[in-house]
Design a protein that fits this description.
This protein has 80 residues and is of the alpha+beta class. It has helices at residues 27-45, 71-79, and strands spanning 16-22, 53-59, 65-66, 69-70.
Length: 80
């Protein structure tokens, strides 16, 4: 029996990156972020830009909590 090696071609590396962020970023900021993340994958893992998926999730501060406190309320505390 032969010892076969599977070869993964660099073009088949296809990461999907999920980014959760508070809503309010401009389309220009999102475009810049997506470009930077895509380029990082190209530079570090040898992916091609066409094989990098980036999914952005805009989250309302009322839908995000840290340490048991809603970010919408933490924001109010900081302002007041």
């Amino acid at each position: 029996m032969h010892n076969r090696r599977c070869r993964i071609h660099r073009s088949t590396i296809m990461p999907t990156i999920r980014v959760d962020l508070f809503e309010g970023r401009t389309d220009e900021q999102k475009r810049a972020l997506v470009k930077a993340l895509t380029q990082a994958c190209v530079d570090t893992i040898g992916s091609t830009p066409a094989n990098v998926d980036v999914i952005l999730y805009d989250i309302k501060p009322t839908d995000w909590a840290t340490g048991g406190e809603m970010w919408s309320e933490l924001k109010k505390k900081k302002a007041g």
